[in-house]
């Protein structure tokens, strides 16, 4: 072994890594060049291109230098791409001028000289076969195309990987579910805790209507006044039997509810009246119930998909060779930011009904599995600071997306069977969350790195979170999976096929600290007063300060003919601070004026500003792979670096203060010299020694913790005119709108 050259040792180690994961090497080709730059091949990398039943892997010929500038994934190498992450597999023959997009079981009539992989995480990877054998190159291209189009869900690598992992964990005596803090909402106790936490005394957990045929989870929360036999009788009139489902309760007693459309128009009024009556009875003040039909007031899934494809093309594929104004205009034309604003705006209107009108709200969508997921999650994020913590946010996604039956399999198009069903609704939601984080950076426990990593996890088929269309489909596949892998009947599904929330499966403890926001002022935020460590506490007044300014007529429910939900375009004026004193304010205008006239309560109700100039492009997600957009020692990461060091230093001092030995007769108090152990410190960037200069490290860029090196190879761009944008220029919907924007 010691006589082997370095390249062979590297290949041997990677082969051992494949074996450990249980992968099967399908095909491979040597002497492949991975393109780094389109201008010159001097920086290109040489190695072996391998296709397994899990990923496309590129193994460098020479030992790679140690990198500090990106996350180190425990299951994927720096040059690996999961097969489910591939959007298109394109083969090129330069000499014959041919190009072909490959699908499953297709033939290739020419020998490829180049392979281009377009990825769903916005990477574009190019491999050249100048020195490779033509037949080997053709075979590996066909293998990648074939295995990236699995014929069935059970062929995804996660089913092989988790089966192997389960039996290894049993041998080692580990209990994976024991370390999972995020509730899965697959048992009544999870729902009972949520009901108790939100004081929803008018609601109960029910499993009577679950028959394994609809897309509902086994346990749902319904009004106490509705008996099980009533629910069974009403369910047949709703699309896919999706009855009204409780989402959340406001401290004032109003409830957020979601439901599908009633399929029988003859019975619609009668059923709605009974449902409304039951929800009204669940309110301690018997307040009114309002319904919002999201299909009528928000973009549909096809519009969202179309706008995402456009903005992705503009940011990643198109060169930045036009003027800055033209580039910004292209972003506007894509309508992606317009859709983001629309969802945030409508969610704010729902918040007004719940918080300002003290009224329960029903979100209605035809199937209750797409738009409802986005809006219900955003409303709860705005109202409840619990969901702005890391565990709380994950429980929100688990509750309102996974267990509510969002069609992740179809919307992510993992099997690549129906492009018409594909739509980035979860990505849209994450963008909306980032907009709120961008405006209220101290209100969230997690960072934009966490949101980006979460979006990337959709394309790693190893976890149950993003693989299925419904709890029913998940249960059916996992029962079959357990039988095939000899897993005992009755074993916890979260143990043998875990969700994504156990991040130790993907990242080291050190890398997971990149998820922690140093500015977070939520639960447990500490300070030192008079030599004692104090912890900030949140009162109900902080939780919803706007309720105290609501007239009693609104708190008791709206009985008049006032418009319940403002029009889509009307909230913009409500968010402007310069209201005319002569104008008669509507209750909604007064609600938002009062809210924005006070300093933002980072631990209370949060409504994002929605002027076009306030809604920005999420640069870390859309531009992280673009070399021209990568600013050395620039971007938000520089502030994150300094704040992390400062917080780490404060926490060390607090730890020393807690360990301080108090005075005793005849003795001198001595401070404990050490702080918390390095592996228990929350910040990624540690406090610098006193003599070290506080300059950011050389590896920091605006793309950190990702790197564009080798992850986006298209024709080069000279004279990129977007420097103003990259330095923080605002994005707006139109020049005319900007001229009128005085905020």
UniProtKB/TrEMBL annotation:
Residues 666-676 have a biased composition (Pro residues). The lineage of its organism: Eukaryota, Metazoa, Chordata, Craniata, Vertebrata. It comes from Scophthalmus maximus (Turbot). InterPro entries: MTMR12-like_C (IPR022587), Myotubularin (IPR030564), Myotubularin-like_Pase_dom (IPR010569), PH-like_dom_sf (IPR011993), Prot-tyrosine_phosphatase-like (IPR029021). Residues 661-697 are annotated as: Disordered. This is Myotubularin phosphatase domain-containing protein. One of its GO terms (cellular component) is cytoplasm. Keywords: Signal. Residues 1-22 form the signal peptide.
């Amino acid at each position: 072994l010691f006589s082997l050259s370095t390249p062979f040792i590297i290949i041997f180690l990677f082969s051992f890594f494949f074996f450990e994961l249980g992968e099967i090497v399908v095909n491979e080709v040597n002497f492949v060049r991975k393109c780094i730059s389109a201008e010159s091949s001097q920086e290109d990398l040489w190695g072996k291109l391998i296709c397994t039943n899990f990923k496309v892997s590129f193994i460098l010929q020479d030992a790679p230098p140690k990198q500090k500038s990106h996350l180190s994934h425990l299951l994927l190498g720096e040059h690996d791409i999961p097969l489910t992450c591939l959007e298109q597999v394109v083969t090129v023959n330069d000499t014959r001028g041919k190009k072909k997009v490959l699908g499953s079981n297709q033939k290739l009539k020419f020998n490829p000289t180049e392979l281009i992989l377009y990825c769903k995480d916005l990477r574009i990877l190019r491999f050249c076969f100048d020195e490779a054998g033509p037949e080997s190159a053709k075979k590996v291209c066909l293998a990648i195309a074939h295995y990236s189009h699995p014929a069935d869900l059970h062929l995804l690598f996660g089913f092989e990987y988790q089966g192997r992992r389960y039996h290894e964990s049993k041998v080692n005596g580990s209990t994976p579910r024991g370390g999972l803090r995020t509730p899965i909402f697959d048992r009544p106790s999870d729902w009972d805790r949520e009901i108790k936490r939100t004081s929803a005394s008018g609601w109960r957990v029910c499993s009577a209507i679950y028959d394994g045929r609809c897309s509902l989870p086994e346990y749902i929360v319904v009004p106490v006044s509705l008996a099980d036999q009533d629910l069974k009788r009403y369910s047949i009139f709703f699309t896919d039997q999706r009855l009204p489902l409780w989402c959340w309760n406001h401290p004032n007693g109003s409830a957020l509810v979601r439901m599908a459309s009633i399929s029988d128009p003859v019975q619609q009024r009668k059923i709605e009246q009974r449902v409304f009556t039951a929800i009204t009875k669940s309110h301690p003040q018997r307040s009114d119930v309002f319904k919002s039909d999201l299909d009528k007031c928000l973009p549909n899934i096809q519009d969202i998909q179309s706008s995402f494809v456009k903005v992705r093309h503009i940011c990643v594929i198109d060169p930045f060779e036009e003027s800055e104004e033209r580039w910004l205009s292209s972003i506007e034309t894509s309508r992606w930011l317009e859709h983001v604003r629309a969802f945030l705006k409508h969610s704010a209107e729902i918040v007004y009904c719940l918080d300002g009108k003290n009224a329960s709200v029903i979100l209605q969508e035809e199937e209750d599995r797409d738009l409802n997921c986005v809006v219900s999650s955003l409303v709860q994020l705005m109202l409840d600071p619990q969901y702005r913590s890391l565990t709380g946010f994950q429980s929100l996604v688990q509750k309102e997306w996974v267990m509510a039956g969002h069609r992740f399999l179809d919307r992510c198009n993992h099997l690549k069977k129906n492009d018409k069903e594909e739509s980035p609704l979860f990505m849209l939601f994450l963008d909306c969350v980032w907009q709120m984080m961008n405006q209220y950076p101290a209100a969230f426990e997690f960072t934009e790195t966490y949101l980006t990593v979460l979006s990337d996890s959709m394309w790693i088929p190893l976890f149950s979170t993003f693989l299925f269309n419904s709890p029913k489909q998940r249960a059916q596949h996992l029962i079959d999976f357990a039988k095939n892998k000899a897993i005992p009947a009755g074993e916890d599904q979260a143990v043998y096929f875990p969700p994504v929330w156990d991040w130790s499966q993907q990242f080291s403890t050190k890398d997971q600290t990149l998820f922690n926001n140093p500015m977070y002022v939520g639960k447990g935020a500490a300070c030192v007063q008079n030599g004692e460590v104090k912890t900030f506490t949140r009162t109900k007044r902080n939780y919803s300060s706007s309720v105290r300014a609501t007239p009693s007529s609104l708190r008791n429910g709206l009985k008049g003919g006032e418009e319940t939900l403002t029009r889509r375009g009307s909230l913009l004026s409500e968010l402007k601070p310069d209201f005319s004193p002569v104008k008669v304010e509507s209750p909604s205008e007064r609600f938002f004026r009062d809210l924005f006239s006070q300093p933002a309560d980072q631990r209370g109700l949060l409504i994002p500003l929605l002027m076009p100039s306030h809604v920005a492009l999420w640069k870390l997600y859309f531009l992280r792979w673009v070399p021209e957009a990568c600013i050395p020692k620039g971007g938000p990461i520089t502030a994150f670096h300094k704040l992390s060091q400062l917080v780490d230093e404060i926490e060390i001092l607090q730890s020393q203060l807690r360990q301080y030995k108090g005075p005793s007769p005849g003795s001198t108090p001595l401070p404990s010299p050490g702080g918390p152990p390095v592996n228990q410190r929350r910040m990624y960037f540690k406090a610098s020694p006193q003599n070290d200069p506080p300059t950011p490290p050389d590896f920091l860029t605006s793309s950190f913790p990702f790197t564009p090196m080798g992850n986006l190879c298209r024709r080069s761009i000279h004279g990129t005119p977007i420097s103003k944008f990259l330095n923080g220029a605002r994005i707006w919907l139109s020049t005319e709108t900007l001229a009128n924007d005085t905020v």
